Amino acid sequence: MTGKDLLVALSHVDRKYVQEAEFAFLQKGNRPVRKRLSAIALVLLAVGAICVLLTRLGII
Amino acid sequence: MEDTAIIDLFWDRDEAAIRETDIAYGKKLYVLANRIVQCHEEAQESVNDTYWKAWETIPPHRPSDFFGFLAKQCRRFAMERVDWRSTFKHKTRAGVLSTEMEQCIPVQREGMELEAPELGRLMNRFMENISQENRLIFMRRYWYMDTTAEISQRFGLSERRVSNKLRRTREKLHTFLEREGICL
């Protein structure tokens, strides 16, 4: 048997795996680094804004 | 047009079925075939063969997943059209992937050789036993023949991480085939 045979044999795998891989795209927890960084930046910005607000109000 | 409506056209023996299939999935099938054969004419021929096969088998067949059905046929036709000798010589994508897959086959003195359908069934069992993420990456690489760059973009992972995951899955496949008594 060769690697080619194995590659050809993959054509016979169940269609559910073909379908699963076809529609797999940026699933939850697999977001691109850029998007994850923007989410972190947004959270930090929100925390910063709350801190500024609390300081202005004299609470902290 | 919805898949069920296209399948109904096939059942009605309406030639518009081919046109609608081409509109819905022609481009995707061409991309898949072209990744394998890396030749415009051969890829187009593989897609045409796929339509012919669909026309021949629907009816009586009614595929529950129409694209999966077409893609499977298209991949099979494209694989038959690969000139493996030149593939290894020119290091095309199919050649590179075949070399990678070669690493999964255990070298044993005694072992059995299986035909593609039986080997396919064995691969199904292997797929069941790996994590979904590893399975998706493995399928994208060796079924859809994506590059590691394309996979990393699709799943938001670094190329290095994709390569490592693929390497580990290949090692698992090697162990699995060894246990099943498959040899080089």
Shape by Cα distribution of chain B: globular
Q: Would you list the SSEs of chain A in sequence order as H and E?
A: HHH
Percent helix of chain A, as a range, is: 55-70%
Number of E-state strands of chain A = 0
Q: Total strand count of chain B, please?
A: 0
The pair of chains with the biggest contact is:
A-B, 32 and 50 residues
Strand content of chain B: under 5%
Number of separate helices of chain A: 3
Number of helices, where a helix is a run of at least 4 consecutive DSSP H or I residues of chain B = 10
Topology as H/E string of chain B?
HHHHHHHHHH
Q: Fraction of residues of chain B in helices?
A: over 70%
Q: What is the terminal separation of chain A in angstroms?
A: 72 Å
Largest sheet of chain A at a glance?
Answer: none
Q: Could you characterize the architecture of this molecule?
A:
The complex is a heterodimer of chains A (60) and B (184). Chain A has 60 residues and is mainly α. Helices cover 67% and strands 0% of the residues of chain A. Chain A contains three helices and no strands. The radius of gyration of chain A is 24 Å and the shape is rod-shaped. The relative contact order of chain A is 0.06. The mean pLDDT of chain A is 81. With 184 residues, chain B is mainly alpha-helical. Chain B is built from ten helices and no strands. In chain B, helix 5 (84-90) packs across helix 6 (93-102). Chain B is globular. At the A-B interface, helix 1, helix 2 and helix 3 of A face helix 4, helix 6, helix 7, helix 8 and helix 9 of B.
